[in-house]
Amino acid sequence: xxxxxxxTERYSTDDELKxxxxxxxxxxxxxxxxxxxxxxCGSGCCSTEIxxxxxxxxxxxxxYEPGADLGLGCGLPTVFAKIKSGDTVIDLGSGxxxxxxxxxxETGESGxxxxxxxxxxxxxKARNNAERLxxxxxxxxxxxIEHMPVGPNxxxxxxxxxxxxxxxxxxxxxxxxxxxxxxGGHFSISDVVLxxxxxxxxxxxxxxYAGCVAGAIQKEEYLRLITKNGFKNITLQKEKAIxxxxxILRNYMSEEDATQFGxxxxxxxxxxxYAEKPEGSCxxxxxx
Length: 288
Known about the structure:
Elements: H1 5-10, H2 14-28, H3 33-37, H4 77-80, E1 88-92, H5 98-107, E2 112-117, H6 120-133, E3 138-142, E4 155-161, H7 170-180, E5 181-195, H8 200-204, H9 206-210, H10 219-228, E6 232-242, H11 246-249, H12 255-262, E7 267-276
Parallel strand pairs: 1-2, 1-4, 2-3, 4-5
Antiparallel strand pairs: 5-7, 6-7
């Protein structure tokens, strides 16, 4: 099973890993979409072979705001999230607010959308976008998604786009999602996972960690964590292979190893997963 052993040896605590991600995403907040979309989730490992490695096209989706799209996603979770009018939606790792604004188009003015991010520059950018758009029912909270600044049983829907792979303790995040969801609520999350072993060169590189790749875990383990935390009706809504261009792979391994990695059936995948918190589940001691 894939681990982050090599990274945790280099960065001895989870806080140091988070500091790395926070630093990178503060820089990314100042970049344009084109720069971010040509890299691995904005990590800076730019490719001349392909304009877009990870993210899907939002441009035709209701509620899309180009000024809030930094090109950092790896899926379209809000499209699959079954958001209804009046819902309360939480977006984990909300960035400049792109998925929050798409979610708001589904909740309408009677709903509420809360974006959570731990990068000050992203929060500021998102709040400016919300103010510019005049959205009074979209708010952005500074916080760590391992310890969300939200009370229990508050959300009908949780969404997230290419964020959990950046978090050291993914188990804690799924536990928090369970806590903040109302009984009967659900999530739809797009993320990066692995099938088979990730080459050691990619595992060890901090830039690729901040760029979503080396922070990914095995797909089987990812789904196991969802089950472990009490979710039911787990559904794989979408899956696609992430093809890292050869000019990026050559930065981390030999030409021969890069060619071999690019031709394998296993590799890096974007998945969108749906799961429900069972009715009657509370998620916190003494709150029911």
